[in-house]
Each structure stands twice: as C-alpha cells, then as structure tokens.
Amino acid sequence: IKEGGENLRSIICCIMGHVDSGKTKLLDCIRGTNVQEGEAGGITQQIGATYFPAKNIRERTRELKADAKLKVPGLLVIDTPGHESFTNLRSRGSSLCDLAILVVDIKHGLEPQTIESLNLLRMRNTEFIIALNKVDRLYGWKTCKNAPIVKAMKQQNKDVTNEFNIRLTDIITQFKEQGLNTEIYYKNKEMGETFSIVPTSAKSGEGVPDLLLWLVQWAQKTMVEKLTYVDEVQCTVLEVKVIEGHGTTIDVVLVNGELHEGDQIVVCGLQGPIVTTIRALLTPHPMKELRVKGTYLHHKEIKAAQGIKITAQGLEHAIAGTSLHVVGPDDDIEAMKESAMEDMESVLSRIDKSGEGVYVQTSTLGSLEALLEFLKTPAVNIPVSEGYNEGWSDAREEKEYATILAFDVKVTTEARELADEMGVKIFCADIIYQLFNQFQVYIENIKE
Ligand code: GTP
Ligand code: MG
Ligand code: NA
C-alpha cells in the first residue's frame, strides 16, 4: 500500500497522432533513447510500450516545483504508428489506455490521422492532453533544454511569441471545428470540458516536464477508482511476433493482477483456444521500448501495470487484441477456453481470408492486419490464400496470385531460388507503403 493509503497501479497512457508529428521522438526525449532514428523509413510500424518509474517522472518534473506527490508506481506509455495503414494499432492502443496524449505538429495543425485518433478517443470517452509539438521549429526559437514551457516562452523574442500565438489560435479553431474546446494548459480553468494543450519540443525537451506532470496529476485526481489495483488478472495481447531464440512470443499489456512464470494461460487462437504455460516473463529495462530488440529482464512474477513479453509454447496462432486469461486452481478450463474464444468474433472480420490468393508473410500480426486491409481496398482487391502467413507450397495459375508479399521478414536465398523456379514473384520490403506501392504497380501492369 502506497502513501495516502491508496493502492494504485501504474497509469496506462497511449500516444497517438498523425504520422511524423513526433510521438516516438517525444518518448525518446523522455527515455533518453534513439528509437526513432532506428526505424525503417522513419515511421513506426508496430505498437510498443515503455515503462517510466515514478522516480524518473519526479526527477523530470522537479523544476515545476509542483511538489508532485506521486501515488502511482509509474507510467506505462503505449506508442502507436501514425501512418494511415495502421488504424488497427491505433484502435488497439486507444482501447487499452486510461488516458492519452494526442500529438499535433505546430507547423501542420490537424491532419487526417489526428482527426481519426481524436475520434477513436472520443468514442471511448478517453481523456487526453494535446502535445503541440515541434515548437523549436518556430523561426528564431531559443533552445532551453528540458525547460518547463512558461520558462522557455519567456526567453523567446516577440516574433517567436507572435508566430506561436497565431499558430496556437489557428489550431484551437481547428479543434473547435471538430467540436472540441481546447486551451493552453496553464490557462485552462475548465479541465474535463476543455482539453489542455501543452507546447513541446521532442528535440530539445521544452514542455516535456509539463506534459508528464499534467498526465500524472490529472490521472491521480480524476481516475483513482480506475487506477486502484485489483488482483483479478486483466491482460491484453498487443502483438504476436517471432523473436530469435524465443520462437513466437506475445507482447501483452497487463492492466491488473499478477502474472507468474509457470502460470497456465488461455489465449484466443486462430485455430481455437490456446492453453499453454508461461515459460518466461520478460520486460525491457525501465525507460526502454518493448518493441525494440534489446536485453530483457527476466521476472519470476510481475505486477500490473506493465508491458511484458511472454514466451510459451504454441503461441503461433495467437490473435492480437484479445484477452489473456490465467487458469486458477478452481477454474474450469473448458469454460475459460470458451470465454477466451468470445473475443474471436470481433477480430475475425479483420483477418478473414478466401480460398485462393496471394501469400503474405509479416513479422507481426499488426502488420499482417494492415496488409490484409490494403489487399481489400478497391484499387487492389486481391484475395489472400488460406496458407497466409505460413508459407506456400504450390504456384498459382493466375499471375497475380503467384506472388508472396513479405513484410519485414527475411527471405532466404533458397526460398528465392525456389520461387524463381516455380515462377512465383516475391515482393519484399520493410516499409509497409513501399510494399504496397511495389505490388500495386505490378497489379496495374498485369491488368493492362
Ligand atoms: P510515426 O510513428 O511514423 O507516426 O511518426 P511519429 O509521430 O512517431 O514521429 P517521429 O518521432 O518519427 O518524428 C518524425 C520526424 O520529426 C523525425 O525526423 C523527428 O526527428 C522529427 N521531430 C519530432 N519531434 C520533433 C520536434 O519537437 N522538433 C523537431 N525539430 N523535430 C522533431
Ligand atoms: Mg513513431
Ligand atoms: Na515518424
């Protein structure tokens, strides 16, 4: 039990917004990492999670002298892609979180995926704060590394302040057109009805302390009930992916309860319920990204809220977006299997497939969903083969079907040679829209 007598779990926060507004870079700024620079094409194509312990948040917000009494153990931030192909992952992230950060590029204002994200959040009545990012790009901005925003603004000349005010007013108007009242956070007297805007720079850190403090204080003030820890396990599968040396693993967000090594679990699978035993509970180090390959910490047990990689046998067909259940001593496994499969219906529509079509293979289930959506669009409209994501055995009659779309996976020389022999064309890319473009050009050519 923490100070104040409340037993709170960590806050789960999702970061959303248009592509390249600076979501990952903002997290890099808080973590002191360079995840963004390592991303293919400079875009995020997976959903990720990072844990920030309370002590780091306290350090980072010290200058605000808010005497931030942190009652939560930490903050778990879920990073989502902004690219239009990944609506599925934005939806998954926003459905999991207690509150969110909506990032807007101050030079661009509201963009299509800003509005899409906004609507996803409103649909679920999720509170959010707006990070008005890239303030350092205002002409003549004077850097005040990691400073609170009011302090940083005081250092700026008249021209910068003017440009800032013009852009801010314009963006407030754009939000109003979406039916939303917004105000710069330190002037916002109607929190809850009027959404707060925190100006930030992910490059030099101005406003980042304000963003962190607002998140934690707002959550602690208005969400005590939601954040009160409960023993019953509440856990969602974020991603399913193969990790060298670990086989197929699942990345999960544990919202409540505890997981232990050796726990028997039930997960929803494409070919029926999966009953397996947790082999290892892995997390990255605090302030490191779960989706980035690195060294993992092994845990005998782990308490919510956390982002965790689980290794276990038989996870190949697990479905992201569904719940993970832990089998207790008095539980009826058959009933649990049934309830695990109840999630199936809601996700089935995303992964339906026809008998004959192209083969697709992807590194994560999230990107598979994005690829399947693309193949369904009217401009392409190509079915996917039954054996999707598993490989292929025979070439197809139709030319457009004799293809394999490989996203972010290695294609071995043998596979290439075999494909050549069989007249099967392999498209391979690690940036999703490049794969789309290659295939679309090919389809257009053979249709002519
Ligand atoms: P997706 O995940 O692909 O949707 O993009 P994102 O929102 O995560 O943006 P990302 O962090 O990839 O940043 C996009 C580009 O903007 C990168 O080149 C960053 O270096 C740059 N950038 C992000 N934030 C800032 C900022 O505050 N100031 C400046 N000058 N550049 C920024
Ligand atoms: Mg990103
Ligand atoms: Na980006």
Describe the structure.
Belongs to the TRAFAC class translation factor GTPase superfamily. Classic translation factor GTPase family. IF-2 subfamily. The strands form five sheets. A seven-stranded mixed beta sheet has the order 2-3-1-4-5-7-6, with helices on both faces. It has a five-stranded antiparallel beta sheet with strand order 8-9-16-13-14. The chain has 448 residues and is an alpha/beta fold. It is globular, with a radius of gyration of 23 Å. The termini are far apart. It is built from 13 helices and 20 strands. Bound molecules: guanosine-5'-triphosphate, magnesium ion and sodium ion (NA). Guanosine-5'-triphosphate binds at residues 17, 19-25, 36, 42-44, 81-83, 103, 133-134, 136-137, 201-203.
The Rg value, from CA coordinates, equals 23 Å
Helix fraction, binned, reads 25-40%
Strand content: 15-25%
Bound molecules: guanosine-5'-triphosphate, magnesium ion, sodium ion
Characterize the main sheet. 7 strands, mixed
Total beta strand runs: 20
Domain Tr-type G: 8-224
GO molecular function, one term: GTPase activity
Keywords: GTP-binding, Initiation factor, Nucleotide-binding, Protein biosynthesis
Family: Belongs to the TRAFAC class translation factor GTPase superfamily. Classic translation factor GTPase family. IF-2 subfamily.
